[in-house]
Amino acid sequence: MTESERPLSDDPRDEPADEDRVAERAHLLPEEISAGSADPIGQAEQILAESDDRTDDPERTQQEYSQTNESDAGNSR
Length: 77
Prior knowledge:
Elements: H1 15-25, H2 30-35, H3 40-56, H4 58-64
């Protein structure tokens, strides 16, 4: 199993919370609706797993995932 295929949480007590997160994220955003999605649940699981991975180890994942740092974004607030 690759890291992106790993469960959102290895703790079985977290399973209902993970299911809730996936169900909430599976509601497609307008741009996702227009692009289409054959598997919103699978898409949500992948997005959340990658998000958790970036949160858990931001230095390592900064090189692996496409993301924007605040310093790179121009801080246009």
